[in-house]
C-alpha cells in the first residue's frame, strides 16, 4: 500500500486547568513523510484511554517528558503495520506502542525495537483485539503488578479497591478475586456498584456518592479492617480509607485520578496513621515492570479464555471522538476500560 | 528498705487541645500499696520524654489503650529495684519499663517479665545511666530500625532527616553517618543547625524556619534528590519534601510530631507523587521490634564507647519539672533527647 500523504492528528491546543473544557485537543491534518529505509507505517486500530492521558494534558511535570502546546497528543495504541522497510516488521504485524493519537504514524522500526513500551503483539485468534488494551492491556498488567508485586496479595486477604468500576479498578477486582481474596469495591453510583456485585461477584460494593460518612460505611462493610487498599483515586477517598486500614496494611498507590488536572489539590489529613498503624504505602508505574509483561500476558490470556476475566471495554468508534472520550474518562462516566476503536480493515 | 506509704504521681487533669496549656497534668500524692508476694518496688530514676507522651495526652485513640482523665501519666522510665518479693528481681537491679510518671511504683515482677516493653538493664559502668533513655534508648533503637529495617540504608545514600536535632532525629543522623550515608538535616533555628553541622558533622543542614521556600532550599542543597527521608515531623514539612524525593525513594514514617495534639490536621497535597515517583512510605513502631533490642543495644554500646554516638541529652532535674519538660518537648525547644532525672541515690 502506498503511504498516505496526510494523517489526521490530535494536537494539544491548551493544557487542562480545573477539569477538561472539551477543547484541549484539536484534530489537524498533518503531512505524513515517505517511508525511509528502516521505517514502518502504522495504521492505528485502537487508542487506549488512560489516566496518564489526563496527566500529560496537565501543565505539571510528572513522568516522561512534558508535552508542549502544539504537540500531538500521546497515548498507548494498538496498530497494524501497513508497510515496512524494516526487516523485523512485516505488513500485517500488530504492534502495541506508545505513539501519537493519529490515524497513521510513520516511525522507525528500530525505535519500536528499542522502546521498552513497544512490542509486537500476537493477538490470540479467539480473543478480540480490543481486549489487548482492556483486560489484557496496560490496566490489567498494572492491576497484576499492584496486587502481586506491591500488595503481596494472598488468599483470604481483605482487599478494598477505589475506582473499582474504572479501567484499572475493574481489573484489580477480577485479579484479586482470582487470588482468592475478599474483595470490596468503591465506586460512584448505583449502576457501577451493581456491576461490581452482579457481574464481578465482589464481596461488597460501596457507592461513595450515596454516603456522607464513607469511613463509617467502610467500617460497617469491612469491620475487621482493610488489609490491602488498591487506590486509583487518591484525595478525599484515600483520606476516608486511611482510618479503616488494619495494622500492617498496605496501600497500593496505583493513581490519584481524582487529583489530576485539578488546580487546588486535596490535602490528606490522616497520614499520621501510616506510622501508628504501621502502614506501607507504595507507588509503582507499569513502566518499571514491562520486562515482565510477556509472562503476565501469557497467564492472563489463559484466564481470559477460561472466562475468569471479563472483557468490559467501552468502545467509542471513530478517531474524531477521541476528545469526547477523554471527557468521559475525566468525569468518571465510563464503566470499565475506555478505548477509541478505529474501523476500516484493509 | 521499707516501702514508702505514698508516691508522688503525675495525673492527667485534662487532654491537650490545640497545643499544651501547661496544666494537663497535676502532681498528686497517692497511697502506695505494701509489697505483696511477687511484687517489686521501683524507685524511678529517669523519665524519658517522647512524642508518644503527647500522643497519650491527646483525645484521639491511636495505639495502646487510651489514658483517661484522672489516670496517672504513662511513659518510659528507668528505675532501680529498691525492694523485691520476686525471685527474678533483686534490690539494685535496673529496669527499663513503660510505667507511670511517679517517684515510686509498686508492680508485679511477673508483669515486668511478661511485658515486651520492660526488661532488666545492665548499664555499662563506663556509660552514664541517662544514655539508656537517650542515645542507647528507645529513640536510638527507633532510628536504627527506621534506617536499617525500613529505609534499607546503605553507604552513599542521600538521607534527609526532619526534626534532625530532636530526640529520634539526632540519633538517626548519627546512625546514618555511621552507615556511610550522605546525611542532611532539617531543624528549626540556627542553633540546632549549627549543632548538626559542627557536632554531628552532617553534610548539610537546613533551617526550615529561615526559609519561605523549603522545597527550593532542599533542591538547592540536595540537587540529586532525597533517597531516604526519615520523617519525624509530618505535616507541612513532609509536603515540602515529597517533590524533592528521587524516583524509587523511601519515606521512613517515624512520626508526625507537628500534628500530634493539633485540632485541625495539616492536609498533605503532594501525595500523588508517591505513584509517579514510585515512592515507598512506610510506618513502624519500635514496639514491633523489641525482640531485636538486645542485639541492637549491644552494637550501639560498642559505638558509644568508641565515640561514634554522642550523648546529647537535655536533662531536667526533679520529678516536679515533668510538666514543664513536656512543654519544652511540645514546642520543640529541646536540642536532643529530653529526660527528667530524679536525684537521690539511696
From TrEMBL, chains A, B:
<dbReference type="Pfam" id="PF16884">
    <property type="entry name" value="ADH_N_2"/>
</dbReference>
<dbReference type="InterPro" id="IPR011032">
    <property type="entry name" value="GroES-like_sf"/>
</dbReference>
<dbReference type="InterPro" id="IPR036291">
    <property type="entry name" value="NAD(P)-bd_dom_sf"/>
</dbReference>
<protein>
    <submittedName>
        <fullName>NADP-dependent oxidoreductase</fullName>
    </submittedName>
</protein>
<dbReference type="InterPro" id="IPR045010">
    <property type="entry name" value="MDR_fam"/>
</dbReference>
<dbReference type="InterPro" id="IPR020843">
    <property type="entry name" value="ER"/>
</dbReference>
<dbReference type="InterPro" id="IPR013149">
    <property type="entry name" value="ADH-like_C"/>
</dbReference>
<dbReference type="InterPro" id="IPR041694">
    <property type="entry name" value="ADH_N_2"/>
</dbReference>
<feature type="domain" description="Enoyl reductase (ER)">
    <location>
        <begin position="22"/>
        <end position="340"/>
    </location>
</feature>
<dbReference type="GO" id="GO:0016628">
    <property type="term" value="F:oxidoreductase activity, acting on the CH-CH group of donors, NAD or NADP as acceptor"/>
</dbReference>
<keyword id="KW-0560">Oxidoreductase</keyword>
<dbReference type="Pfam" id="PF00107">
    <property type="entry name" value="ADH_zinc_N"/>
</dbReference>
Amino acid at each position: 500500500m502506498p503511504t498516505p500523504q496526510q494523517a489526521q492528528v490530535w494536537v494539544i491546543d491548551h493544557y487542562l486547568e480545573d477539569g477538561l473544557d472539551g477543547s484541549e485537543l484539536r484534530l489537524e491534518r498533518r503531512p505524513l513523510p515517505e517511508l525511509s529505509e528502516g521505517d514502518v507505517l502504522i495504521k492505528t486500530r485502537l487508542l487506549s484511554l488512560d489516566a496518564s492521558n489526563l496527566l500529560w494534558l496537565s501543565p505539571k511535570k510528572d513522568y516522561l517528558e512534558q508535552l508542549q502546546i502544539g504537540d500531538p497528543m500521546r497515548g498507548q495504541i494498538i496498530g497494524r503495520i501497513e508497510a515496512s522497510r524494516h526487516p523485523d516488521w512485516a505488513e500485517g504485524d500488530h504492534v502495541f506502542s506508545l505513539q501519537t493519537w493519529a490515524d497513521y504514524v510513520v516511525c522507525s522500526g528500530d525505535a519500536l525495537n528499542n522502546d521498552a513500551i513497544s512490542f509486537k503483539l500476537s493477538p490470540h485468534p479467539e480473543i478480540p483485539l480490543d481486549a489487548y488494551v482492556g483486560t489484557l492491556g496496560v490496566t490489567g498488567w498494572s492491576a497484576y503488578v499492584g496486587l502481586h508485586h506491591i500488595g503481596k496479595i494472598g488468599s483470604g486477604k481483605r482487599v478494598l479497591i477505589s475506582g473499582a468500576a474504572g479501567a484499572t479498578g475493574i481489573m484489580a477486582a477480577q485479579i484479586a478475586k482470582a487470588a482468592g481474596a475478599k474483595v470490596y469495591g468503591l465506586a460512584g453510583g448505583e449502576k457501577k456498584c451493581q456491576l461490581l456485585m452482579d457481574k464481578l461477584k465482589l464481596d461488597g460494593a460501596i457507592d461513595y456518592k450515596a454516603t456522607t460518612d464513607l469511613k463509617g460505611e467502610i467500617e460497617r462493610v469491612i469491620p475487621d479492617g482493610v488489609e490491602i487498599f488498591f487506590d486509583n483515586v487518591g484525595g478525599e477517598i484515600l483520606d476516608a480509607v486511611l482510618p479503616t486500614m488494619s495494622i500492617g496494611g498496605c496501600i497500593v498507590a496505583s493513581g490519584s485520578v481524582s487529583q489530576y488536572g485539578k488546580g487546588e489539590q486535596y490535602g490528606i489529613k490522616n497520614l499520621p496513621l501510616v506510622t501508628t498503624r504501621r502502614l506501607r504505602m507504595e507507588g509503582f508505574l507499569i513502566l518499571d515492570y514491562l520486562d515482565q509483561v510477556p509472562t503476565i500476558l501469557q497467564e492472563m490470556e489463559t484466564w481470559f479464555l477460561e472466562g475468569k476475566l471479563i472483557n468490559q471495554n467501552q468502545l467509542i468508534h471513530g478517531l474524531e471522538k477521541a476528545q469526547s472520550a477523554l471527557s468521559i474518562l475525566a468525569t468518571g462516566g465510563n464503566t470499565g476500560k475506555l478505548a477509541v476503536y478505529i474501523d476500516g480493515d484493509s
